TrEMBL record:
Signal peptide: none annotated. GO terms for molecular function: acyltransferase activity, transferring groups other than amino-acyl groups. This is GNAT family N-acetyltransferase. PROSITE patterns: GNAT. It comes from Pseudobutyrivibrio ruminis. It comes from the Bacteria.
């Protein structure tokens, strides 16, 4: 597996198939990108977070050249913490270690910058598979917020997780 920058014109048609329903979409982006996922709306959102937070989007590519994962990354220069956001893995390869491998590479890439002392991410605890994946890489819970997000008749918490250099 390798990590490369996301190219919306080449990669969008692949990643849009990974979100098959509104609830999965909300788990991925907490409604920050409108559902259903559309190319121009994603392009605009990625441009906004690049300006606002310095986010860069990446994809994970398997050994056959297929895009199998997506995430955004930014660095907070005040706290020296990197942040992974909008992590998503192709549904057809979930449960096969792809997500864990992608997150390990993302963390390794972040720590290649000597300024980075830790990497954080947020996950809904209700997304137990994702949370277990992050724990398997070495992330630990730093803070939990109850009822951080409402989706229809559900209320989801927010778990901030951290891995240190």
């Amino acid at each position: 597996m390798k990590i490369r920058l996301f190219n919306i014109d080449d990669d969008f048609d692949v990643i849009k198939t990974w979100i098959t329903d509104e609830r999965t979409h909300m788990m991925w982006c907490a409604n920050l990108v409108p559902y259903p996922l559309e190319k121009e709306k994603l392009r605009n959102f990625l441009s906004e977070i690049a300006v606002k937070f310095g986010d860069s989007p990446f994809v994970a590519v398997d050994d056959e050249g297929h895009v199998v994962g997506f995430y955004c990354y930014s660095l907070n220069h005040e706290t020296h913490e990197g942040m992974l956001k909008f992590v998503m893995v192709d549904a057809s390869v979930r449960g096969k270690g792809i997500g864990k491998e992608m997150i390990k590479l993302a963390v390794r890439n972040a720590f290649s910058d000597p300024e980075v002392i830790a990497v954080q991410l947020n996950v809904f605890p209700e997304n137990s598979r994702a949370k277990r994946c992050y724990e398997g890489v070495g992330f630990t819970e730093r803070q939990n917020t109850l009822d951080a997000f409402k989706y229809k008749d559900e209320s989801w918490g927010r778990c901030n997780m951290l891995i240190k250099r």
